[in-house]
Amino acid sequence: QLRGFEKVPLAVGASKTIGFELMRRDLSYWDVVSQQWVIPAGEFTLSVGWSSRDLKASTTITPVQA
Questions:
Q1: Which UniProt keywords are given for this protein, alphabetically ordered (predicted)?
Q2: What is the pTM of this model?
Q3: pLDDT tens by residue, 27-50
Q4: Are 56 and 62 in contact (CB under 8 A)?
């Protein structure tokens, strides 16, 4: 699921560092039984690229459970 994006104009051969924050809610789903937002246990893969079909880099994170 897309959780953030930023359009960054670059000249050919240039690079730029960008960043954005993922909040707890960005990794959560609504549990209808407990009536609260829940972060599933386990790992999440974060990917960047031109599109979902052209990913250039990925990393894995494990959120800290509250």
A1: Glycosidase, Hydrolase, Secreted, Signal
A2: 0.66
A3: 899 999 999 999 999 999 999 888
A4: no
